[in-house]
Specification:
The complex is a heterodimer of chains A (517) and B (993). The longest helix of chain A is centred in the first third of the chain and has 23 residues. By secondary structure, chain A is mainly alpha-helical. Chain A contains 18 helices and nine strands. Chain A has a three-stranded antiparallel β-sheet, with no helix packed on it. With 993 residues, chain B is mainly beta. In chain B, 7% of the residues lie in helices and 47% in strands. Chain B contains nine helices and 51 strands. In chain B, helix 6 packs antiparallel against helix 7. Chain B is globular. The chains are: A mainly alpha (517), B mainly beta (993). At the A-B interface, helix 1, helix 2, helix 4, helix 5 and helix 18 of A face strand 26, strand 30 and strand 31 of B.
């Protein structure tokens, strides 16, 4: 019968169709839009295919360090030279600034958590580059960068989780002790010094032999702290380390690339044209106007008032204790800056008292009161006028939001002060005093009699204020746990380290929470 | 008392009827009789008698008697009564007609379940079936709104009042912290890819906004029914996509008598509630109170007036169909132009639909095709989810100094570093999206035998959108570019396409085995989802008079090399499924259903490619048992158990490895893959009853469910170090989420006779949500934005708590200085305060009346037992803001807060959200069109939406859900300058020809 035939034929067709479609896909998740590496287990990661581009990504990881939060916040808000006061409805920000200033941070604090991730990602990315190449140029740069990120981890957390380049997400990273990790950093830097080329004038963004030497000085200077059995000391700043620091300084000096800015030109170090106009920077991030990677604009945004030009976020200020230490003739204290002051009335350095615009007219705050910055601030209840503001990276009026100022991590004056400190710790107060006074003279400050620990720390403050090293310096000189304005209580020893973030403790049982948290 | 009311109502109805008849003055004769129940012989009270083809009629009295004057040309009378089969009796000159009505087959209601339909009385799962008459009325831009409050256990929250804005639909609670929580939508058999074509972030520099609802493309007038599969036994046929429930939308089809239908309406909308801000005079006085003495800029501006407007919307619809016994078709056209109540916002939709079906090959083959095409033009006001201290359009307007002139003397807008001029924002920002969507499907059903048929379906869904966002360089955002004197400006174009193709084969068996009905389904389905998109933006624009997105190259690249930003993506997903279902009806007493689906998905990891989703359910029609109380005509006990999945998590790169090149030239691993990754799995038990008594005049159902969701997709912190940007690795969490609840639907035909009708439907649901008490981690969400609130959050995923429980500083009041005090010292201690944003109880009450030709309905919605976080107040309505020359509300001025206090995120801004809303009331009149020639019916109506809101919430509306997610963990119930909801009055006409 015809209908039966149709039926039978249809069944056949149906089965072939169904069978055909049944085998139509193996459901591979094709990854569109990226180079792809197949991963079939949780314990393996692929090697980078392009180690040079991987190195670029490692450098890029530095860009986050220019933010006003993160590393900068943990290095500066915790110290005697910077405060983020809450101003009425402004800047409460979930208490992060208050907690840093009053040393009441905890294991869920934003910066405590984020720095742990970002810094460790930095040295892991470097590790991946090192594993993926045999090119010595790439490896030496990567090892320099690994040391750079790991140094902060050592400093902040006292424990360093380490993941090999190909260890996948299910592998628990091993933990390096503070002392062991310090040695890893030194080893990386020794390799870098031996293999990196010399500094190239104008390019502070590429790792150089001198950058590695300067970083190694920093590591060796703090090594006494980082290798101490108890983070609170005693610290052994041993002679061998100090001699090495002095030798490294001599090597940097001997390279002939670096020199102090001439007297009165201090703020040129931080200017929009500092790549070409200053010979102090050793390592940092290169920015060009309109083409910024490590944006420095937040350095003025975070402190300037709304009604100044450029408009700011009206946030951070210095503390009266630090402000009152200054010899106001010191050129580092403040100056008019060409290309800035005539444009907006803004000066570089410390901004205190009535503020003016470019025509000399007094500025007001948002409620119409005269904009007078006062040295005293209240951590919890400041007005929008309280606190002395600080401008180091002067604005680039050609492009305020994408300024050309290079961001500086390491610079020559720091090297010289580290050398002086090594001399002091090695018992050569005279040599230390010579170095410090040479610098002070160029900065227009009165020479000191003999440098001691406290004047050494103060000098680092005068030279390097708001540059992101103060916490290390105060710990080394034993003042970090003390009291200062808006921090009436001394801190206990546990505050010498930040806590391991709760989320990391839960994720990696190899980590042990630091004492006191 | 009751009696009197009844008589009054009847009298009223008769009066109306009389009025309706006054125009008809023909020779009449009286007909009388009695209407009784055929079985018992009892008189039927209030039964309806109608002259065939007219609206002339009456109702029976308490003895079942009626008398009716019928026109001389009348041919027959129609007798009807709810729950009885209607009878048409020819007059043949008689003056007495007694009628016995058979109680019985009430309208055979059909429930659409996946891949088929079942009689409602045979359904074994928890399914809500809604027809057009149940739908929400008014200006409706998307189908979910039709359901609001109508289906017990289906919570529909409009995230704001934005036309076409996002809607969150939660069927039986929230179960996922990272995957989607929305249901699967199936339109005429095609499961939709419900992604957005163009993202929400048409970032204007003011913040990110949320995307609009992708379901807006469906014209609500084309929808015949919506069925919601709530429990696992019903949804398991959709396997890995069924865990959040399934919404099955069936569109209208034509038949031989489809008339031409035409509808037109105009609606007038205005902002339903406004903030009670300080007036200019109050502002000056209050500012002085906190020490700001120089805030008077001389003008007197109501900034809310400047950005709100009275909006006019229009809607037109036309449809017709036709056919014969073999072939039917229907065509429809719709146009909606919905203006937003905020200036420069709205939605315009043009939409057409064709469907046809035919039967051929000696009735052996059915073929049907349908095609829906739509074009939506969205215009967005710059109201965003995460504005900073400058505010978005609404935030800027709320905080703007009311004494500040809008314009300078030279006619330019007044703008300053700390003052974003709302009028300038509106003037200088343009944000448009255009989305076209085509949904087509064709299917053929071959009846192999009387009992067995085979069906093949092909579906195609293609949505393409482009969004253009422009910020003129004259708007002060960022710092001035020295070279041009202007600000950087912004032009952005984003495009996206989502394409989804389905091919499906099913075999359906419908036969009898030993006198009992057996239905079986076997199917295979393959669906492919393609998505692609791109985003390009330019800033630092030169010529101020070129609209940025018209020419993104309007940039001096030498000077500003970083002016361009561009990204693109492409992705393909596949889903391959096998499924089957068996229904067995034993003696019409026991109904058994079993389903099984096996889903294979590209989203799953290598080691878990296929998931299996079974379900079993059974029903016992107790009312069929002799011993069961007669009072129930129907009483059915249902129980079901099943497993469903949720695969709606971010699709790419989670389960396999990838290396990407980022835009700085660096190469890094983008993710830490997990090849074991799989679907979230929900196991659900449902027990329910369906009942009906009093001749079907009272019906209802009651359900209890218990849901457990395992293998939650969770962004686990991978122990550091990890590649930059790959800090979380997706895993399936061991800790389950529990949802359980009770749902009740009760419908009553309170009055039903020819001239007066009143039906009332109450829906209610109670829901309890808890995350596994053994979970020890903490996941934060609910970002709070605004001045001084960087990094703030208020919600957390914590063990032993409902999802999105509030984790906040416990505010206890103000000290003598007016500074906030907190339960735990200085206030940086976060505590769980036993408050959450998930409503415990949802109620809906729909009442529909008709008085002859007049009809009236109203709908009340109530939502109880949840807290809203008022981010708007937290960011803006702080008394110390007066010191910054910013405006606040009268309440905030009188709050006792001191001038130096900081408004840290805390329980201070947590408010009870409970509300009752008169969501809808409408009144309509059906004209007597006899003698009107071509016009066969004409209805004039007035409809009001969002007429009354009863709540203690201090913001504009507690039904709100601003997107405040953190790292992809969604927030719930946070209000941050949400687009205000409108109150709308619509006037319209529906006509058929």
């Amino acid at each position: 019968m015809k209908s039966n035939f149709l039926k039978g034929g249809f069944w056949l067709a149906l089965f072939s169709v169904v069978a055909g479609f049944s085998a139509c896909t193996d459901l591979d998740d094709a990854v569109e839009g990226g180079l792809r590496e197949e991963v079939v287990d949780n314990e393996t990661l692929p090697l980078l295919q392009d180690p040079a581009a991987g190195l670029t990504a490692t450098y890029n990881q530095l860009n986050g360090l220019t933010d006003q939060a993160g590393v900068f916040a943990m290095m500066e808000h915790t110290t005697d030279e910077l405060i983020g006061p809450t101003r009425g409805t402004d800047w409460s920000d979930f208490g992060v600034w208050r907690q840093l200033h009053s040393h009441t941070w905890n294991a869920v604090h934003r910066d405590v958590v984020n720095n742990f991730n970002n810094l460790s990602s930095g040295y892991f990315q470097a590790t991946q580059v090192i594993a993926a190449t045999s090119d010595n140029s790439l490896i030496s740069q990567a090892r320099f960068l690994r040391a750079f990120f790991m140094m902060y981890m050592v400093d902040f957390y006292g424990q360093v989780p380490f993941r090999e380049a190909t260890e996948g997400g299910a592998i628990l990273p091993r933990i390096e002790s503070r002392a062991d990790a310090t040695q890893m950093v030194i080893d990386d830097l020794d390799f870098a010094i031996a293999n990196l080329p010399d500094f190239t004038q104008g390019d502070i963004g590429t790792a150089s032999k001198q950058a590695a030497e300067a970083l190694l000085m920093k590591v060796l200077l703090n090594k006494g702290v980082w290798t101490a059995a108890d983070p609170a000391g005693p610290y052994d700043f041993n002679r061998a380390d100090m001699d090495r620091i002095i030798a490294l300084a001599a090597s940097i000096d001997g390279s002939g690339f670096f020199e102090y800015e001439p007297t009165g030109e201090y703020f040129q170090i931080f200017s929009p044209t500092n790549s070409t106009d200053s010979r102090e920077p050793i390592f940092g991030i290169v920015n060009e106007t309109g083409n910024t990677r490590g944006n420095t604009r937040n350095r003025h945004y975070m402190t300037m008032h709304y009604n100044q030009n450029p408009s700011g976020w009206n946030g951070f200020t210095t503390l009266s204790g630090f402000y009152n230490k200054w010899d106001q003739d010191d050129t580092r204290f403040g100056a008019e800056y060409p290309g800035v002051t005539e444009v907006s009335g803004l000066r570089a350095g410390f901004l205190e008292g009535q503020q003016f615009n470019e025509n000399g007219e007094a500025l007001t705050d948002r409620a119409g009161d005269p904009l007078i910055f006062t040295p005293e601030v209240d951590l919890f209840y400041s007005t929008e006028r309280e606190g002395v503001r600080v401008i180091k990276y002067v604005p680039d009026y050609d492009n305020v939001d994408n300024p050309g100022n290079d961001y500086i991590f390491l610079r020559y004056a720091d090297v010289k002060l580290m050398e002086a400190e090594a001399q002091l710790r090695a018992g050569n107060a005279g040599a230390a005093t010579t170095i410090v006074n040479e610098l002070r003279q160029i900065r227009g400050a009165q020479p000191l009699g003999t440098v001691d620990e406290m004047t050494m720390l103060d000098e680092r403050g005068f030279e390097l204020y708001w540059e992101g090293w103060r916490r290390q310096d105060q710990i080394r000189f034993g003042t970090f746990l003390g009291t200062w304005a808006q921090k009436p209580d001394a801190s206990d020893n546990s505050k010498l380290l930040f806590p391991i973030p709760d989320v990391q403790l839960a994720a990696n049982p190899n980590l042990v929470q630091n004492p006191g948290y | 008392m009751k009696l009197t009311t009844f008589r009054f109502m009847r009298g009223f109805a008769v009066l109306l009827l009389f009025l309706g008849l006054t125009g008809v003055a023909l020779a009449q004769s009286a007909v009388s009789g009695t209407i009784t129940d055929a079985e018992s012989g009892d008189p039927l009270i209030g039964a309806s008698v109608l002259v065939l083809g007219t609206s002339t009629g009456t109702v029976t009295d308490f003895d079942g008697n009626y008398t009716l004057n019928v026109p001389a040309n009348a041919e027959a009378l129609v007798f009807s009564y709810t729950g009885y089969t209607a009878q048409t009796v020819t007059l043949d000159g008689r003056t007495t007609i007694d009628v016995m009505l058979e109680s019985g087959e009430t309208l055979e209601e059909v429930v659409v379940v996946g891949y088929g339909t079942v009689k409602k009385e045979d359904a074994t799962g928890a399914v809500v079936a809604l027809d057009a008459e149940d739908f929400q009325q008014g200006i409706i831009s998307s189908p979910e709104q039709l359901l609001q409050g109508r289906a017990a256990g289906v919570q529909i929250t409009q995230s704001s009042g934005e036309p076409g804005g996002g809607i969150s639909v939660r069927i039986r609670g929230t179960a996922s912290v990272r995957g989607g929580n929305g249901p699967l939508y199936v339109v005429d058999g095609v499961p939709l890819d419900n992604g957005n074509t163009v993202g929400g972030s048409g970032n204007t520099g003011l913040g990110n906004s949320s995307a609009r609802n992708p379901l807006n493309f469906i014209n609500p007038n084309d929808i015949e029914s919506i069925n919601v599969l709530k429990d696992a036994s019903a949804a398991a046929i959709y396997g890995a996509r069924g865990a959040n429930g399934v919404v099955i939308i069936k569109t209208k089809s034509g038949n031989s008598s489809s008339p031409v239908q035409f509808n037109v309406s105009t609606a007038f909308s205005s902002v339903a509630n406004r903030f009670d801000l300080l007036s200019a005079d109050q502002f000056i006085a209050e500012a002085a109170e906190v020490g700001a003495n120089d805030v008077d800029r001389g003008a007197n501006v109501d900034w809310q007036d400047e950005i709100f407007r009275n909006a006019v919307s229009q809607e037109y619809g036309l449809s017709f169909g036709g056919g014969n016994d073999n072939t039917n078709y229907r065509l429809s056209f719709g146009y909606l132009d919905q203006e937003g109540v905020v200036v420069k916002s709205g939605l315009e939709r043009l939409n057409g639909r064709i469907s046809a079906n035919t039967t051929t090959l000696n009735d052996r083959l059915d073929v049907s095709v349908s095609l829906t095409a739509s074009k939506i033009d969205d215009q967005f006001a710059p109201i965003v989810d995460d504005a900073g201290f400058e505010g978005d359009l609404l935030g800027a307007a709320l905080q703007a100094n009311p004494t500040q002139p809008i314009r300078n003397e030279d006619g330019t807008f007044f703008q300053a570093e700390d003052f974003r001029n709302p009028v300038a924002i509106s003037e200088y920002i343009d944000d448009f999206a255009e989305t076209t969507r085509l949904l087509a499907n064709v299917s053929a059903t071959l009846h192999l035998t009387d009992a067995l048929n085979y069906k093949i379906t092909y579906g195609y869904d293609d949505a393409t959108g482009t969004r253009r966002t422009d910020r003129n360089v004259r708007l002060q955002v960022g710092n001035r570019l020295d070279q041009t004197g202007f600000f950087p400006g912004l032009g952005a174009i984003s495009t996206g396409t989502n394409r989804n193709q389905l091919i499906e084969h099913t075999l359906n068996l419908d036969t009898e085995v030993g006198g009992n009905r057996l239905q079986a389904l076997l199917g295979f389905s393959y669906q492919k989802f393609n998505s692609e998109g791109s985003f390009t933006s330019a800033t630092n624009l030169i010529n101020p008079d070129i609209r940025p997105s018209d020419a993104l190259q309007n940039v001096n690249v030498n000077e500003f090399p970083r002016s361009f930003n561009s990204t693109s993506f492409i992705n393909e997903e596949e889903l391959q499924s096998y499924f089957g279902r068996v229904n067995y009806n034993l003696n019409d007493r026991f109904l058994l259903t079993a389903t099984l689906r096996v889903d294979g998905s590209t989203r799953f990891g290598e080691n878990n490619k296929y998931g299996t989703f079974p379900s079993f359910s059974a029903a016992w029609r107790l009312s069929e048992e002799d011993w069961f109380p007669e009072v129930f005509e129907t009483f059915k006990l249902r129980a079901g158990w099943g497993i469903t999945g949720n695969q709606e998590f971010p699709s790419n790169n989670l389960s396999t490895g990838a290396i990407i090149v980022n835009n700085e030239g660096g190469q890094q691993l983008a993710n830490l893959p997990n090849p074991d990754l799989k679907w979230e799995e929900t196991t659900q038990l449902n027990i329910g009853v369906d009942f009906g008594f009093n001749n079907g005049r009272i019906t209802g159902s009651l359900d209890y469910f218990d849901k457990r969701t395992d293998d939650l997709l969770f962004p686990a912190i991978t122990p550091a170090p990890v590649p930059p940007g790959a800090g979380t690795r997706f895993i399936n969490l061991e800790n389950p989420v529990f949802n359980d609840g009770i749902e009740l639907t009760l419908s009553a035909v309170v009055i039903d006779n020819a001239n007066v009708g009143w039906t009332s439907t109450l829906t209610g649901a109670y829901l309890n949500n808890e995350f596994d008490p053994d979970f020890e981690g903490l996941l934060t969400t609910g970002a709070i934005n605004g001045q001084g609130l960087t990094g703030a959050f208020v919600q957390a995923i914590v063990g032993g708590q409902p999802l999105n429980t509030y984790l906040v500083r416990d505010f206890t009041g103000f000290d003598d200085a007016g500074n906030a005090t907190y339960a735990n010292g200085e206030g940086d201690v976060l505590t769980l305060i036993g408050s959450d944003p998930l409503p415990d109880v949802n109620l809906g009450w729909l009442n529909q009346f008709n008085f002859g030709r007049l009809d009236f309905s109203f709908f009340l919605q109530g939502v109880f037992g949840f807290d809203v976080y008022n981010n708007t107040a937290n960011a803006i309505f702080l008394r110390p803001n007066l010191r910054n020359a910013r405006n606040i509300t009268v309440d905030a001025a009188n709050s006792g807060e001191g001038p130096n206090n900081f408004g840290e995120a805390s329980s201070r801004f947590l408010e009870k959200g409970d509300f009752v809303r008169l969501q809808n009331a409408s009144i309509g009149y059906n004209f007597d069109t006899a003698g009107w020639g071509a016009v066969s019916s004409l209805r004039l109506f007035v409809n009001g939406q969002n007429l009354l809101l009863f709540t203690d919430y201090s913001g504009l509306d507690p039904e709100v859900d601003t997107n405040k997610s953190i790292n992809g963990v969604p927030s719930v119930g946070i209000d941050y300058t949400a687009y205000p909801r409108a109150r709308t009055v619509q006037i319209g006409i529906n006509a058929t020809f």
